[in-house]
Amino acid sequence: MVKNISLVLSGGAARGYAHIGVIRVLEKYGYKIKSISGTSIGSLIGGFYAAGALDVYEEWVTNLTKMDLVKLLDFSLLDNGVIKGEKLFAVLKTMVKDVNIEELPIKYTAVATDITAKREMWFQKGNLLQAIRASIAIPSVFTPIQIGSHYFVDGGVLNSLPITPVMSDMNNLIVAVYLNADIPNKYTVKLSDEDLQRQNSIKSYFLELWKKSRNPLKNHKYNDIFYIANISMVMMQNLITRYKMAECQPDIIINIPRESCELYDFHKAKEMIKIGEMAAEDVLSSLKKPHQSS
């Protein structure tokens, strides 16, 4: 018998590409995703899956080049690395158009942080891309988004693993994917020379941008805005997630090692998708397949 599941996708920036691999393996094992709750990159991957656009998104991110990124990054202040995100979302809009959340075939929740009201916000209706934009506005990376009189930033500020929005769903299981697990990274991915060259080119571009900044202490990791944002977000999210997990436990949790890549390693799409596949296989292969009778 096919099992209907609620899927919870955590925040974790570039590690979020692992969500794609997990979804592929869930489908392979016969699970039917009936509802999705996501924070940050989890809201993006989950939203694109719910809209039927994950295939085209995966094709795009796994083939990005340095020149593609040059065209996408619209810095509002180069020295502090803040990105407006308008060019990026113009491209994403070509993939999902102007679809509203309530029109999706899968129940969907994007979790963001309302810094005006100082509370967690669940987007369960309205424009899908606007909800995703609010949910992924990582402090120090993306500028906050204004909706009405309120400003929103990354949902991971208050809830990196949003299980509560799916607790009332009448599905067989809740499956959660956590991208910041403090476990050893046992996964090794071998990429082609072409993919390695493309990845290194993108990474070099980001390093060049940072070297051009005017921070005289930029060579020390504790004065690196990306390092500080990375470690601060991970520490904060791990603490909050422990409290959230004490209240709401998923039936299945798939952990992605925090060491698998840094938050801003967006050039590692293929690598992280594969790691998501391997992590999901490790967990699901030990369980009875949903189409098997008990």
How far do the termini sit from each other? 9 Å
Q: Considering DSSP H and I runs of 4 or more, what fraction of the residues is helical?
A: 25-40%
Biggest sheet, in brief? 8 strands, mixed
Unreliably modeled segments = 77-81, 213-223
Give a structural overview.
- The chain is α/β, with parallel strands linked by helices.
- The chain contains nine helices and ten strands.
- The termini are close together.
- 40% of the residues are buried.
- Mean pLDDT is 85; it is low at 77-81 and 213-223.
Short description:
The chain has helices spanning 17-28, 41-50, 54-61, 66-72, 86-96, 128-135, 193-211, 225-247, 269-284; strands at 4-9, 32-39, 75-77, 82-83, 107-114, 119-123, 145-147, 150-154, 173-181, 252-257. It is of the alpha/beta class.
